[in-house]
Amino acid sequence: MRSILVSITALFLAIFLLLLGNSLLSTLLILRGVAEGFSGKFLGILTSVYFLGAFVATLLASRMIKRMGHIRCFTFCTALLGCCTLAYTLAISPYAWLIIRFVTGFGVFAMYTVVESWLNGQTQDAYRSRVFSIYTLINLLAVAASQQLLLIDSATGYTLFIIASLLVTAAIMPISWTRLQQPNVNVDMPSMSILKVFDAAPVAVTGCLVSGLIMGPFWGLTPLFVNDLGYTENQLATFISLSILGGAFIQYPVGRWSDRMDRRRVILVTFILSSLLAFAMAICAKYYPVERGLITALSTIFCGIVLAIYPISVVHLVDRISKDNLVAGSSSLLMIYGLGSFVGPTIAGFALEHMGASALPAYYLVVLATSSLVLIMQLIRSRIVEIPDDHESHYVAMVRTSQNVLPMHPESEEVLDVHPTSDEVPLTSEELSGERHEPESI
């Protein structure tokens, strides 16, 4: 038991170092891009290309692990990411950055797959919920802490790029230090078609798509938004850190609220509240940019509410399908989230290019307001106003990394060392026929 705990600690340390370096790099690239004269449109495309690389990694990482093993695959991706981090300073060119950013996204999410599949292999069922919660907390803390490293030096120099490269490279040390054998797990995720997921829980699909459309630009373009408002690098670091940490605490009451009423209505309310907050942020950015405390507070609340949309959507899907299908269904939702994360930054980047800082919250407003209207019309047509009698599952805060984190979800009854019996996991006959006693899905 002690050796297992040591192994898990090593994996947690590896992912913390990886996120610390990569999150620093993500913000640093936007600041350096602005200093080099890159347009907001290009920086939006740069963020989209990163998520494109991440999507490709979800398709190929399993084959890489099977061919190379966990440790060698992680070592390969670490070296790749360390080289990419330094390459940004050697080739300061838009075309070169697009290629490097694609490779960076691929390397990061391949490393996610390695760590998460290994973590699953070392985690006993009794500790799954605890490990999942700690993993989510580590992700948020690492992203928030990384922003404080911006205070060490200016983005126009090389020091921060070197620090980011050192942190990412150091992530290999905990992995290589552990003496446990690599897990013999099946890292191929069972699948469920998006159409079947949509039939079971269309609101969950909408929620994940909107979450990706919002959070993709948030992670990638917030530094540009804050920079356009005239914030110093110190203020920028504080803004992003508070938004993430404060948002992490706010999403819990929002999520727990969803356990007590119809989750579809909760998702609608989060859309509406987020729209109002985005409107307020756009007004402040346009007419009151000096009110930085107010803008930071609005961003923190906004981030907390939007962060809750994806987990609520996942748990709503769990309400509609059997728990042993959670991994397959959630994998499809993760792909939908990835699609939104790929498309969103490009659109938001174009808006920032032509409208200035207020364009980013204005983009949020358009996406969320449009989605709110769509859900309202669906609710009216379906007459879904009742509160369900009960819920089979409970809200769990979760991160959106690779599909291999999903078997650790406390509601999942599936583990990676159990091979699926077929390539597709169908809905139950009861779900396909719609003969459930809870309100009809919209």
From TrEMBL:
Transmembrane segments annotated in the record for this chain: 42-61, 73-92, 98-119, 131-152, 158-177, 197-216, 236-254, 266-288, 294-314, 326-350, 362-380
Example of a GO cellular component annotation carried by this entry: plasma membrane
Region (Disordered): 414-442
Stored InterPro entries: MFS, MFS_dom, MFS_trans_sf, MFS_YcaD-like
Any one Pfam family match given in the protein's UniProt record, by short name: MFS_1
Chain ranges of the Major facilitator superfamily (MFS) profile domain: 7-384
UniProt keyword annotations, A-Z: Membrane, Transmembrane, Transmembrane helix
GO molecular function annotations of the record: transmembrane transporter activity
Extent of Basic and acidic residues compositional bias: 433-442
The keyword Transmembrane appears for this protein: yes
Protein name as annotated: Major facilitator superfamily (MFS) profile domain-containing protein
UniProt organism field: Paraglaciecola arctica BSs20135
